[in-house]
């Protein structure tokens, strides 16, 4: 698939160029309002761009009605037809295509997603995970040239999500067709996607192999979703000069004078009430915005978005509370400095 879309709606200006190869799964990440749903709607034909192009399987799809594009959609909610049985729901696509083997196709996909035993049930008789399996079978039974997945695991409970995630991985890997998945979950991206694209304000601000992006994020959102701290600025010898003028020592291969980011884990941060003068470590003065449980630790969040993970005993000893000014301290060896293509 090759696509380029330009769209202006009031203050929102969308300009994205994206390609997805056969068999490739691309995860689209980004904050609310970044354009993720707009991208899917433009590809599906539910929104018309001001200008652009869309090519899929050698066909120019711009201007083609949604039902003729050969694109399948799996959304947050299964959206099954309540008056039809599970089998009839899955048959709907191939039957609409006037395929003589529509029943065989439906049964095959129900088997593929481990839902054949539900064939005679109505949607109201299914659990959330079961319904999402059937919705996936219905989408695939139409043999789409491209699959769009719009946060398909968000509405599932913690018990159903892992099974459906594993199912999606298996099914997507066996089809030599492209897929685009919108998600807010780093685990979904790691398990399902070959490549990650990060949108912000209607633009692609970062993209690359999934593990590379999540391990060395170059955008604030990718760092946040990966559970890392990110400070943007300009690279200098030995580290980075933040946009606020603070020097952060770190390790990396970026040349001096480039737009860059310093990245470090919340677990690498020590918290002090006073500035530890004379220390060779980075000391960042922050104001606490909140405290929350994070496994066996307490996650401290600063007003500037930085985070630190400390033990409950340390939090009690420091007598921390929101609004308080403290120092986040991190060793230079724990900080990665990377060039940020196009800035952050």
From TrEMBL:
Specify the Mop domain's residue ranges. 277-339
Q: Where is the ABC transporter domain?
A: 5-226
Q: Which Pfam families match?
A: ABC_tran (PF00005), TOBE (PF03459)
Keyword annotations: ATP-binding, Cell inner membrane, Cell membrane, Membrane, Molybdenum, Nucleotide-binding, Translocase, Transport
Biological process according to GO? molybdate ion transport
UniProt KW Methyltransferase keyword:
no
Q: Where are the transmembrane segments?
A: none
Please verify whether the record's keywords include Translocase.
Answer: yes
Record GO terms (molecular function): ATP binding; ATP hydrolysis activity
InterPro entries given in the database record: AAA+_ATPase, ABC_SmlMolc_Importer, ABC_transporter-like_ATP-bd, ABC_transporter-like_CS, Mo/tungstate-bd_C_term_dom, Mop_domain, P-loop_NTPase, Transp-assoc_OB_typ1
PANTHER family the UniProt entry points to: SPERMIDINE/PUTRESCINE IMPORT ATP-BINDING PROTEIN POTA, THIAMINE IMPORT ATP-BINDING PROTEIN THIQ
Protein's recorded name: Molybdate transport system ATP-binding protein
Question: What is the organism of origin for this protein?
Answer: Allokutzneria albata
Q: What is the lineage of its organism?
A: Bacteria, Bacillati, Actinomycetota, Actinomycetes, Pseudonocardiales
């Amino acid at each position: 698939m090759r696509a380029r879309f330009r769209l202006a709606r009031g203050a929102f200006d969308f300009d994205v160029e994206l390609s997805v190869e056969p068999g490739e799964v691309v995860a689209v990440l980004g904050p609310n309002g970044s354009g993720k749903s707009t991208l899917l709607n433009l590809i599906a034909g539910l929104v018309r761009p001001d200008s652009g192009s869309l090519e899929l399987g050698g066909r120019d799809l711009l201007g083609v009605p949604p039902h003729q594009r050969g694109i399948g959609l799996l959304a947050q909610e299964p959206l099954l037809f309540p008056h039809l049985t599970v089998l009839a729901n899955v048959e709907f696509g191939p039957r609409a295509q006037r395929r003589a083997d529509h029943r065989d196709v439906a049964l095959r996909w129900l088997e593929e997603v481990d839902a054949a035993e539900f064939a005679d049930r109505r949607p109201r008789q299914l659990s959330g995970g079961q319904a999402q399996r059937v919705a996936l079978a219905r989408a695939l039974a139409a043999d789409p040239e491209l699959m769009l997945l719009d946060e398909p695991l968000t509405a599932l409970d913690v018990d159903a999500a892992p099974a459906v995630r594993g199912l999606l991985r298996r099914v997507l890997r066996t089809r030599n067709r492209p897929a685009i998945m919108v998600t807010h979950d780093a685990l979904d991206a790691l398990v399902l996607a070959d490549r990650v694209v990060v949108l912000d304000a209607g633009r692609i601000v970062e993209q690359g192999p999934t593990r590379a992006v999540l391990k060395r994020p170059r955008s604030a959102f990718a760092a946040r979703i990966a559970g890392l701290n990110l400070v943007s600025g300009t690279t200098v010898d030995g580290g980075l000069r933040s946009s606020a003028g603070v020097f952060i020592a770190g390790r990396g291969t970026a040349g001096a004078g480039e737009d860059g980011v310093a990245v470090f884990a919340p677990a690498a941060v020590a918290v002090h009430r006073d500035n530890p003068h004379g220390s060779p470590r980075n000391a960042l003065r922050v104001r606490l915005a909140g405290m929350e449980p994070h496994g066996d630790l307490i996650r401290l969040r600063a007003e500037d978005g930085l985070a630190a993970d400390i033990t409950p005993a340390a939090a009690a000893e420091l007598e921390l509370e929101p609004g308080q000014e403290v120092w986040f301290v991190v060793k230079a060896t724990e900080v990665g400095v990377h060039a940020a293509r196009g800035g952050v």
